[in-house]
Amino acid sequence: MATTRITIETGQKPTEAQLKEIREAAKAPATYDPDCPPSSPQALAEFAAKARALRQAKKRLKPTVTIRLAPECLDAYRALGKGYTGIMADVLTYAAGRPDILKQAVL
Known about the structure:
Helix content is 55%, strand content 0%. The chain is mainly α and 107 residues long. The chain has a domain of 32 residues. The longest helix has 21 residues. The model has no long low-confidence stretch (mean pLDDT 86).
């Protein structure tokens, strides 16, 4: 069975042919690639436990903080596009590890 992609715009309803295809696909048995068989319930449980542990570790490593920035500073980062907050975090981490940069800061 081939994969079919259909774009449905907001407010648009699927056609009867599309609904029929969806109903038929729901009845079909799942097929798996021989190189990638389905995971056992035990493997899925182990994966879920590891995913939970990683999410918790990530929360501990990167707490959320609020800071006040000059508008021109924020504009410069926002101009970088999506992911600018990660870039800000990288710059702060870089500066935090270099005492010569921190000494230049105006208090």
